[in-house]
Amino acid sequence: MRIAITGSTGLIGTALTHSLRADGHEVARLVRRPARAEDEVEWDPHRQYVDGRGLTGCDAVVHLAGAGIGDRRWTDAYRRELRDSRVLGTAAIAEAVASLDVPPRVLVSGSAVGYYGDTGDRAVDESAPPGDGFLPKLCVEWEEAAAPAEEAGVRTVFARTGLVVARGGGAWGRMFPLFKAGLGGRLGSGRQYWSFISLHDEVAALRHLIDTEHLSGPVNLTAPEPVTNGEATAAMGRVLRRPTLFTVPAPVLRVVVGELAEDILGGQRVVPAQLLESGFSFAFPSIDEAIRAALR
Asked: Which among 109, 173, 271, 275 has the fewest CB atoms less than 10 Å away?
């Protein structure tokens, strides 16, 4: 297959690109500059430009690009960047896909479990409505921006991803050095649920979404057993054999990271109903297994 990927240099995009190429698939990487290599396709999400010639002949498009949620404090300017990088980028990709004479069979468009807001200890699946606040609203707009592809008859899947357990990047990647140094600990009460997924299973799930013809709409990419922050903290200490004595109180977290603290102190207990019903098998379903997989 020929598969186009945005965000191919990010944590998930890099791993997905390597996985697909290892199995002999052709990957076209969308880059935000003039293309310099045969496998590159120019695009600019802010100008809503995509070189459609680079998508010709693609069987699938996987759209993963977007500014990092936890990369900076949420100033008004960064809120706009978070929104524009997702909504404008998705609209550009969806419109480019819809304009092709022979569109790809599927568009897998990134989304996040932030869609559900703070669910407390209530388990939710893909049938749950969006929550309240900035992130749920952002996720709703993000997914709605793919409408041109859906209206053109392209099977469109929204990959609502949880916290990816990996050393090479993302929120979990920033935690590994702290825990290895014995400085890790729970955040706030530690009772908030974290819906996680190993990087291996994230890539396998994205490939499952590409290949499984009957899947469309939202699909949660999370392990089947969400854990609390306290349980994740204990697992990190157990696997790394380090103490986890430190606690970051809620007021301190709010000072350090600003408004993002409310999403860290809240949580989502998300279950992957669609993945499980479609026959997907997790290689690392438990938090201990996911952490060990990240260390390999």
From this structure: 173
* Residue length of the chain: 296
Sheet strands (E) in the chain = 2-6, 26-31, 40-44, 49-50, 60-63, 106-112, 123-124, 155-161, 163-165, 185-187, 193-194, 196-198, 217-221, 227-228, 246-248, 269-270
Output the DSSP codes for 60-125: EEEE-----TTSS---HHHHHHHHHHHHHHHHHHHHHHHHSSS--SEEEEEEEGGGG---TT-EE-
Beta bridge partners of 44: 49
Q: Are 45 and 66 in contact (CB under 8 A)?
A: no
| Terminal CA-CA length for the chain | 29
Residue partners of 199: CB distance under 8 A and separation at least 6: 11, 12, 15, 164, 165, 166, 168, 293, 294
In degrees rounded to 5, what are phi and psi of residue 211? -90, -20
Residue range 208-223, pLDDT digits in tens = 999 999 999 999 999 9
Query: Is it the case that residue 253 has pLDDT exceeding 80?
Result: no
Contact yes or no for 209/274 (Cβ under 8 A):
no
Regarding the domain with residue range 2-295, which homologous superfamily does it belong to in the CATH classification? Answer: NAD(P)-binding Rossmann-like Domain (3.40.50.720)
CA pair distance 243, 179, nearest whole angstrom: 8
Which has more confidence, 70 or 190? Answer: 190
Which among 136, 132, 133, 284 is positioned nearest to 196, based on CA atoms?
284
Which residues are paired to 123 by β-bridges? 269
